[in-house]
Design a protein that fits this description.
Helix content: over 70%
Order of helices and strands: HHHHH
Radius of gyration: 15 Å
Distance between the termini: 16 Å
Number of strands: 0
Structural class: mainly alpha
Number of helices: 5
């Protein structure tokens, strides 16, 4: 079955909604999973980032039926690039010993979704 933009958009809707809720309500557990000590500042940033993820979830849900266009391709390439950069950042944080191996779950998810978006951006 071919990957379509609608399917990718629904996957991203669910992923962003789950990440947003997790960052807002369970940010401390994410930090511990990454081998970091939760602090007030980090939890404030996680809650704010969680709202950004919920906004992305809504954007993907509302745009899931968008026809192929230059704007849709640009959105895919930007989201793919951003996801791939997040994966690289997570890997560099691990290699610099600032995060534990628990960050690899995020790295793998970001790399897979980033690759799917880049592919979708190129094939239209």
């Amino acid at each position: 079955m071919a990957l379509t933009f609608g399917i990718l958009a629904l996957v991203m809707t669910v992923a962003c909604a789950v990440l947003g809720a997790r960052f807002i309500f369970f940010g401390g557990s994410v930090l511990k999973e990454w081998g970091l000590e939760p602090s007030t500042g980090a939890l404030i940033l996680f809650r704010r980032m969680g709202l950004m993820y919920l906004g992305l979830a809504l954007m993907f849900f509302l745009g899931r039926t968008a026809a192929a266009s230059e704007i849709r391709s640009a959105l895919c390439l930007v989201m793919g690039g951003t996801s791939m950069l997040l994966a690289c950042l997570g890997l560099s944080e691990f290699l610099a010993r600032r995060a534990s191996a628990g960050i690899f779950r995020s790295v793998v998810a970001e790399a897979v979704l980033g690759s799917a978006f880049v592919w979708m951006g190129w094939v239209g």
